[in-house]
């Protein structure tokens, strides 16, 4: 690498670290990560500690640190118990070494459930990607996965993603441990009820049915909830509400 390229790379890294230091919540960290990885074809990413294989959707959401995963895919993944079959999880638990998703062949060739998880992920533009795991000082394992339809995954790119993931996960953990009081969030009784049903995996039509309101009314409640929680989608809203103790 030429001296100018080294300087540019270092400046890029330092800028990323400064941006992370200014992040005030997990959504800020997620946004900064996506800003730096999108040029490499990454469309979605997630970082999470490892839930129990048979954990509920709510439990899985409670393990999220960073979340820019497709909402519909996250819901399907949790509701169908794909955590137990995901070859990415199995690979990361067995070895912390970073890898590309196309290296998972040996783990899925004799497992139709594992093949189904990978095949269905492509419906959400999760075709090519990269994953790694990190161990925290308190011996937790954090998984990071990022991908898209067509990603640029040279050795240099993988090194950059490893660096980004390491710093971002560290900042996310630090934010969760700071115990800085969150600004109070006040949800109406109906908003809280709609959110609780959303946490149970119900869509807007189903929420409307159980609450005796229209589908539009359920959507209106959920849009208000997302705005109050600063969430970009339903999955993040549920995760943030669980973190804040707004729903069980």
Task: Give the CA-CA distance, first to last residue.
Answer: 52 Å
Would you state the CATH class of the largest domain?
Answer: Alpha Beta
Question: What is the architecture of the largest domain at the second tier of CATH?
Answer: 2-Layer Sandwich
Report the strand count. 5
Number of helices: 12
Helix content: 55-70%
Poorly predicted residue ranges: 1-7
Mean pLDDT: 85
Largest sheet: 5 strands, antiparallel
The whole-angstrom Rg is 19 Å
For this structure, what is the CATH homologous superfamily of the largest domain? Answer: Transcription factor LuxR-like, autoinducer-binding domain
Q: What's a concise summary of this model?
A:
With 248 residues, the chain is of the alpha+beta class. It is built from twelve helices and five strands. Helix 1 runs parallel beside helix 8 and helix 9 crosses helix 12.
Give a description of the structure:
With 248 residues, the protein is an alpha+beta fold. The chain folds into 2 domains: 3-177, Beta-Lactamase (2-Layer Sandwich), CATH 3.30.450; 189-244, Arc Repressor Mutant, subunit A, CATH 1.10.10.10. It contains 12 helices and 5 strands. The protein has helices at 3-22, 26-37, 57-62, 71-79, 87-94, 105-108, 112-121, 155-177, 189-199, 204-211, 215-229, 234-244; strands at 44-49, 64-68, 99-100, 128-135, 141-148. A 5-stranded antiparallel β-sheet has the order 2-1-5-4-3, sandwiched between helices. Helix 9 crosses helix 10 (204-211), helix 9 (189-199) crosses helix 11 and helix 11 (215-229) packs across helix 12 (234-244). The radius of gyration is 19 Å and the shape is globular. The termini are far apart. Residues 1-7 have low confidence and may be disordered.
